[in-house]
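Figure 2 data, in text form.
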Amino acid sequence: MAAAGASPALAQYTDGISASIEIASDERRRGLSWSNGNPVIGGSVSVAVADGLSLDGTAVSLWGSTRHAGADAVIDLGPSYVRQWGGWRLSAQARYHLFPGASGQAYGEIGAGAGFLIGPASIDLSGSYAPRQDSVGGDNLYAAASAAVALPGTPFTVSARAGHSSGHARDPVKTTRLRPDGAYWDYGVGVDYLKGRWAAGLRYADSSIDRPDRRHAGGQLIGRVALNL
């Protein structure tokens, strides 16, 4: 649930095909607004191809994102692998990010995570790495920790997360696309409501970035409504 607050509702890793659509007041990833602080609509689909393995796709409107050279949308494509081992949940994924409406902006990254379930609570550690690419001016490493607790007897889940972005810069101008302040922290708290196929949530997101363009990286309350198909 904590991860779902950062992107369109996560598809469930079950047999067959699952999908969702979502409306949110902002598309914010790792503390940065990708949609200039404007509302977005997005959708995701997951196709199970083997036990624990799925092929996933997500598309989100960006409406001429200044962060991504005027891109009108972002499309994330790649495989995911999830394995439950006792109370542990292990995962790995690869994603290629495409930006329709802009040229020279696509980039790829790989990631892995480990989570542990304790009753109604979960604790997750994850990391993503974008190898050196011209489109992001170098490489980019992101590490995050999150915790979520389902409130017993209610459809609500509360969560908190923190992440850190770092990396090497070959082109300082292009590096500011994903790391406006060099290395920085992002953090947030949220509450989600799940009832049948419907989900809704509120999330507060902020970062340690201290630059003139902080209006796209400062504190923001984000709302979302999603339908799992």
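Caption note: Residues 1-14 have pLDDT under 50 and may be disordered.
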